[in-house]
Model the fold of this input.
Amino acid sequence: MIETESPIEDAAAEQPAAMTFADLGLGEAALKALRDVGYETPSAIQAATIPTLLAGRDVVGMAQTGTGKTAAFALPIIDRLDVSQKNPQALVLAPTRELALQVCEAFEKYASHLRNVHVLPVYGGQGYGVQLSALRRGVHIVVGTPGRIIDHLEKGTLDLSELKYLVLDEADEMLKMGFAEDVETILAETPETKQVALFSATMPATIRRMSKQYLHDPEEITVKSKTTTSSTIAQRYLITAWQQKMDVLTRILEVENFDGMIIFGRTRSVTEEIAEKLRARGYSAAAINGDIAQAQREKTVNQLKSGKLDILVATDVAARGLDVERISHVVNYDIPTDTESYVHRIGRTGRAGRSGDAISFVTPKERWLVKAIEKATRQELTEMALPSVDEVNVTRLARFDDRITAALAETERVDRFRDIVAHYVRHHDVPEMDVAAALAIVSQGETPLLLEPDPEPQRRERPDRDRGERSDRDGFDRGPKREQRTPREGFSTYRIAVGRRQRVEPRQIVGALANEGGLRRDDFGAIQIRPDFSLVELPSDLPRDTLDRLADTRISGQLIELRLDTGRPQRRDGDRKPFRKSYDDDRPRRDFGDRPERKPRHKRED
Done:
């Protein structure tokens, strides 16, 4: 049994490790992929697990989320993959679709220097067609939730007869969600000769029994996690749609009293785009990423240190080892999907006992990442609200006051301009206060000093009950009479099953539909919010697969059940006709997806 400590400690006191990935026995293709993503030294779980798996032994690993365990099992599998084999060689079971997708992305990243490696995510809520087509073409690695994997086994569409590697990721979470029997059924369907890696944050009796029954002489590896963040860093997060991130960032920059700032983006192109938009808004910003030459990187960092540059926009790789004393804020424009990256990112501020602020932008679908970070770091993140127009204006006025105060200190120049203003007042008979206001306008140029209030969503008055309210005694929730509005050319009116009772606003609808369906801003027409539903104008020629994705969308935790609006009333009993069957949502819970009815091995909830 191997016991080790995770190196994810206080980011203010990082110590370089002597071991490298090359020391673990990985092949050149895997090492190239690791260099591409900027990984230099293995974490504790990786250093202990990778050689063991490469040696062919089964592994039971006790490690928290964020300790780097995905790379610990993915790299050995990639290293020994036979791309000529068509049937799946590796199966990874994960408790939620979010984790399954995250693991898939990791496999694709680590296999970037191998040709024709196919990785397939398999989870409920996704149509069978995509999965079946991929399985027919040939897949090397399948990453899925137990429920949908069971479905494919029962349909005969997933052949595990040539499986070489099986990974149970976050096994304790799968048990908590009721997947114990499904997991054991899958284990029984796989070859006896397979190699198994089981990872769990805890080791309850059920997992201990399962490891003894299905694993052969496993090596037990325990990581004593010290994943912490500095207590001097205030950690906050803000829920926002991805399309609104730049507007949110601009408001935060307006109200936060920052000295120097690092903004983290997920990709090189995102960093360039953020820096360009910030410069257009008048901020001193520059990007560093893998495309930036070392000499330019050093020049940019020195500008940040000297105060010539206020905002650095960076990728994880480019910011490694960066230590600039004046960094007061770190913003995760794209929140990282692993805790280790999060700890290293926010460790750029609050160093050596100084205070710092870390703000993370989180889309509604990424809320689970906040919980994972809190669980791994054992520190709570505080949710913050979008700074209001009033807050922005108060800050702008305070800065304007400071500029006036600074100008008044230059007495000689003030005396000269006092004479100029007095001359204007005498010859134009204008009050001095009006002249001062006019000069303020001149100094502001085209940019107004104060923001206009946020527009309120347009709502029509609810008709009086004796004039417009219709009876619902026949069992229909008719609501108030509404105007018959003809959508503009090329658009159709769709109905979604959320409204004012769910406190839905137009921006939430636009954000959710754009995120799930890949829609652009100009794909939306008028939006009408009703008490129990909303009407949205969308293009009439939306592809079927887009409609299918939108049918699974949730707003405020409720399925929207997108359908064409016919103007007919909706029954109270919820007998709606969405475009297709509504599947399970993407919250972490039992993933039944659209599994067909079958003879159950135990009682299940529908």
About this structure: The longest strand covers residues 233-239. DSSP finds 20 helices and 21 strands in the chain. The chain has four domains: 2-224, 233-387, 390-444, 457-582.
